[in-house]
Amino acid sequence: MPSLVVVVPQPPLLLPELAGEAADELADLRAAVHEAAARLAAVTTDWVAVGTDTGRRTVAGATGTFRGYGRDVRVALGPGSDSSPDPELPLPLLVAGLIRPEGVRIRGELVAEDASTAGCLRLGRELRGAAGLLVVGDGAATHTEQAPGHLDDRAEPFDAAVAKALEHGDPSALAALDPTLAQELWAVGRAPWQVLAGAAEDREWRGELLYSAAPYGVAYHVAVWTPL
After folding, report:
1. What is the CATH number of the domain that holds 159?
2. pTM above threshold 0.85
3. What does the angle CA 88 – CA 175 – CA 225 come to, to the nearest 5 degrees?
């Protein structure tokens, strides 16, 4: 069972060089993400990062770059990684590398965005041996008309339910999320959160919600779960 679980979002704007005029507006989010990462690193330097990709795969020892988002800032999933950056390294692992404290080594476990709940729970159960679990993904991207998925009135109750589950350390509530609704709301975090649900089931957790808001119409949640 993981000694600590951390949940973070994946906006490229976590990289200050990309934030520009939004840097101050996102300062609280960035601070919460780095606080959560520091707390995970204080417990273990071996992390498993869960995020979405086009399909199921494991990634270790990779480097990547934010060049595709406008800045050639390179990140690595572990110390001593000097290989050429993978231009296709998925965004969740770019974010994991960006917030990785010195000395931490990360193995990425990626699932398809439309992976079934059963498949996510099964993977989570397989990851129970991970010392530290970093779960990366955004909530609904449909909170305003200007959001990437435009406005959908279902986004607010969806992310309110996610925030409540994260705050109370409730894996069953994450397992109950509707994959179809999540896809319609552009909530790419649904599958990683349900992997978390599988890894955390059958144990009590103390949840802490460090951040939950929807700047630019996309919901971002930062949480820390400690086993009781």
Report:
1. 3.40.830.10
2. yes
3. 80
